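re: ur question from earlier - yeah i can do the single chain one, its not a big deal. heres the input i used so u can compare w yours
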Amino acid sequence: MKDLCIFLDAGHGSLDKNGHYVTAPSKQYEHTKGAFHKGRWFFEGVWNRTLTNRVAFKLGQLGIPHLIVSHEYLDTSLEYRVELANWYHKNFKEGLYISNHANAGGGQARGFEVYTSPGQTASDTVADLHWKNVKDLLGDRVTMRSDNSDGDYDKEARFYVLTKTAMPAILVEHLFFDNYDDAVLLMDEEIIDRFAEAQVRTVVQYRG
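and the output i got, formated as tokens:
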């Protein structure tokens, strides 16, 4: 797969070297019980990097070229992340951009979602593959949320990373971190590994 590069983006910022969470307050949540990243606090940016690093490791084992465009902990701008991906993409015939997130919805919502830009594009094919891979690997343990109004599983939004990338792109929302039951699942090592495995299978199938 030397002609393909996978661009991985761990959404938002994380913990700096002093243990300070550098991203927006809306990207963290303190549960009333349980143990997460810092006591009862769940930090989305920390989890996003845990998953993204796992995906990168698995891609590396398969010899699939990839580049993490997010910083180790800084919340760099979306423009900069997309600019990095678009610049390096020039060196490859094909590329795929995957932006990893966990969702928030007021504590009641649960489930997995994958987003593409509006309309029918190559990104829809990737999103469909990924939704099915997640369902195969995790469907009996997580809620699968989809929008079938246009005949496929993805939801559509004009997120910057979906509309400004020069290659197919998906944005993945892995459960709701402000829902206690979903948050507990997100801390499960096997769940993390299955989400990562689903992304790798999507890459392999897409390149096919």
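The two ends are 10 Å apart (CA to CA). not sure if urs matches, ping me
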